[in-house]
Every structure is written in C-alpha cells, then in structure tokens.
Amino acid sequence: MTMKTFHNTVNGQPVASPSSFESMNPATGEALGLVPQSTPEQVAAAVAAARAAQGPWAARPDAERKALVMKAAEAIAANADYLADWVTREQGKPLGGVGPGQVPGARFELWGCQAWTQVAASLDLPTEVAFEDETRRDEIQRKPYGVIGAIAPWNWPLLIAIWQMMPSIRAGNTVVIKPSEYTSIGTLELVRVIAEVLPPGVINTISGSGAVGSQLVENPGVDKIMFTGSGSTGARITAAAAKNLTPTTMELGGNDAAIVLPDADPKAIAMDLFWGAFLNMGQTCAAAKRLYVPESLHDALVAELKAIAEAMPMGNGLDAGIAMGPIQNRMQFDKVSRLVDEARAGGATIVCGGKPQGGPGYFYPLTLVTDIADGASLVDEEQFGPVLPVIRYRDLEDAIANANRLDVGLGASVWSPDPAKARAVAERLQAGTVWINQHGMVHPMVPFGGSKRSGWGVEFGIEGLKAVTHPRVISMKK
C-alpha cells in the first residue's frame, strides 16, 4: 500500500517537495504518512507569499478580518474529529473528551483550538488617547508587524500553532508556520482546513528538519518570530533573529514548582495536582514538575497520588478508555529513562512506575519519586515526561527558596484552603504565572508567558494581541 504524501499550503495552494520523511505513531511505531522536506527556495516562496498577502489583509476593515477568523473557528469545529484523530496518531495523547470528568486529550486540544480562535476573533484593540490638553492630542494605534514566522512544538501541535497563528492574523499579520518534524501532518492538515476560508497567502506552512526553521528565522522578510520549545533551541533562534534585528516572542521550557502548604487536605487536592503534573503525560511546558510537600502531609499525599496514577489506563490513545498515551519521541523517552535511573542510583525511592514497558511504542509508566532533594538531576532538569519528584520540606522558607532556585520561571502553584496564606506565598514565587489550588490552567483571555530563562513576551488575551502588533503614535498639534 502506497503511503499518502501530505502537502504544505502556500498562497492557498498545495505544495509538494522533492524529498519527504515519515511521520511515526509513537504508540505503535508505524509510519503514518510522508511529510514534505521544504527546500530553501520553498521557504523563501512561503515568506514571499505571506509578504504579498499582508498589505491587502491588513487593509481590510477590522470587522471583515474578525468575521473571517470566526469562519476559521467554524472550519476547525467542522473538522475536529478528523484533526483529533491525527493528534492522537501522531502525538500520542488519547482521544479523550471535552467537559467535566473527561480525560483531557486530543478532542480537548481541538476544542481549545476552536475556543482560542473564537476569542482572537472577538477581541478589539481600539485607539487609545495617551495624552490630551488644549495644545495637543496624542493617540496610540496598534499596527501589525507584517509577516510572523512561527515555529510550533510537538507536545500540543495544533493548539500551540493556533496560539501563534490566530492572534497574528486577527491583528492584520500574515503567517508562515513550521510544525515540529515529529508532529507535522496534524498541523499541516489544520492549516489546510483554515486556509480554505481565508484569502490566499494569509496562512502558509513549511515543514522539515530544524534547518528549515533556521531558514525561516534568518529570512529578512519575516518581521517577528514566535517560538515555543526548549531553551537551547530558543537561544539559537534568538541569536539568528538578532542578525536581522527581528523581534521575538519566546515561550521556553519550565520546571514548575508546586508547593503544598501544611494546612492542605491531601485527599481534596490530589486529583487536581495529579492532572497539573501528568496532563499530556507531563509533556506540557507549564506542568508541575517539582512537588514540595510538608513532612506532615508527605506520606498521605504520595499515597493519594499513587492510587490515582495506578488507576490510569495507559495504551494506544485510539482505544476506548485510555487515559494516558506514550511519550512522543525516542529522544524524550531516553531522557525520562535516564533521569529516573539517575534518581534511583542516587538513593531515591521509586513509589510506582520507574521501568519502561516492553513492546512497541514509547510507553513509560506514571512514576512518582520520593526521598529526593534539590540538586538531583530529576529535580533540577525539566523532565518533560510522566515522572514527578516529591520533595519533603520542614521549613516553608526552604521550599520557597528552592522553588525559586532554578534559572527558569514559567509557572508555579500553591495549594492551601486559606486564600490569604496561599497568596502570601504566591507573591514570592518567581514565575510568569502562579496558580493557587490549580496548576497549568491557561485561559484564552489571560496573558501567559515566562520569566527568567523561560522566555519573554506573552500570548493570549488583549496583551497577547498587543504582542503581535507594535504601537504607532499619531501626535496632533491643536
């Protein structure tokens, strides 16, 4: 049987490449389809198409752009089942469902794609009056940058692409997006669906290895770069963008600390804490990745988390009743395995999990690790997988200091039934977002971004829309 070759979308047309590579199912190891390896000429052509489309797109009345972005949301909804199937087959997360009590998987990702698109379509950036007196009036307008170059990751391959694309086009920019080489087909198909309701050239794709991303970043026709991914890749992209003085938004890795206060109820918080850490198999930038628990609650909370972890069915996400899928790729699987092995060798206790499953696919069981301290590689490195180190503390001051010790600060959380106590701790944590009695709960109206080496710039809401525009002042003498 001949494997299907998928295409990029450039200027509203399907584009094939001279060479291609296979996209693989991380649950089964099977090849799913062929992805085009974009050539340097094709990258340049995609940027040129976006550049040609940008002026007319920005010149459209704002109401027209909003209406077309809302049409894109309708197109996503109409194709949600098809696209969710691709997310599960290519990324690994289970299909799951949408709504209370449902496993948050691929269908949840597609619901998020629709919701974030609708919010982008609904927002306004009106002209503001910065200053006015009897002699002058100064107004601030928000103008699109031009062409946005976006590089999307493999963990939420469609949702994060939407986060990058939809506010950008809503504001009058055009986009060239490169999906991760691990999860290209779903994103290429998402853009194909969206592009059918938009003018040609407003959204374009390129695909391939990291070299293709480099060509996009280095193209002088790109006016802003948006990247979500690792800090090491972010550093390379920032250096390349600097050569053309291209501004960037960087959403980089995190190693989020969750601090449980001594008055918390382990039973009451365990399920929310579990999903805060293990959503998408822990492959989420803002997942809880270090859990600080007072000695008095440690054993009770670990027992609650262990019971939940061991009850979660793991397997091929297309199968009914599956709550947890595989790690997405071999590189990440090997990193998770190494960190757990190092923790075990260092004397840590593996409460559950800790050994890769046999058979096909990158399956690693949900793993809780105790008797571990700051300085261990599993605590200090972002594991980005289904493993949670639980660190005992006696003194809350030590827990706060250790939570802030690392050079990253994407998210953090505090858990307590006392809002005032929780807030007092939250105010001291160095992170772009600090959640109280929840973790990783992003919202399309609430700005999201990192501090320290977790990046700069924000996405979502009015602040996210401002981030894909630049201010222009009109200053009038009276």
Automatic annotation (TrEMBL):
Transmembrane segments: none annotated. Residues 19-472 form the Aldehyde dehydrogenase domain. Residues 1-33 are annotated as: Disordered. The keyword Nucleus does not apply. Keywords: Oxidoreductase. Pfam families: Aldedh (PF00171). The active site is at residue 251. InterPro entries: Ald_DH/histidinol_DH, Ald_DH_C, Ald_DH_CS_CYS, Ald_DH_CS_GLU, Ald_DH_N, Aldehyde_DH_dom, LUC3-like. Belongs to the aldehyde dehydrogenase family. This is Aldehyde dehydrogenase family protein.
